[in-house]
Amino acid sequence: MLQNLTGWHALLILAVIVLIFGAAKLPALARSFGQSVRILKDESRAAASDTGEPETSSRADDARPLAAPSAAPAAPAAPAAAERVTS
């Protein structure tokens, strides 16, 4: 099923993702996904060590610390309906 996918299909899928999430949110989405994968990998290694199975990977870059979140300026929040003053 996936062998029929070409570069044009990947480009179309990428365009749909950009339209759905917006270009500004993609770096944060990718960072979040990467952290989730790293956490899953660490937890699976911990579970494997608890059961006595040998670890399969000894990559040095797996132990690197997580990057600090970027300090993006927050958008001003709209006032809540209860706080709005009507005249």
From TrEMBL:
It holds the Pfam family TatA_B_E. This is Sec-independent protein translocase protein TatA. Keywords: Cell membrane, Membrane, Protein transport, Translocation, Transmembrane, Transmembrane helix, Transport. Residues 43-87 are annotated as: Disordered. Part of the twin-arginine translocation (Tat) system that transports large folded proteins containing a characteristic twin-arginine motif in their signal peptide across membranes. TatA could form the protein-conducting channel of the Tat system. It comes from the Bacteria. The Tat system comprises two distinct complexes: a TatABC complex, containing multiple copies of TatA, TatB and TatC subunits, and a separate TatA complex, containing only TatA subunits. Substrates initially bind to the TatABC complex, which probably triggers association of the separate TatA complex to form the active translocon. The gene is tatA. It is a single-pass membrane protein. Residues 65-87 have a biased composition (Low complexity). Belongs to the TatA/E family. The keyword Oxidoreductase does not apply. It is found in: Cell membrane. InterPro entries: TatA/B/E, TatA/E.
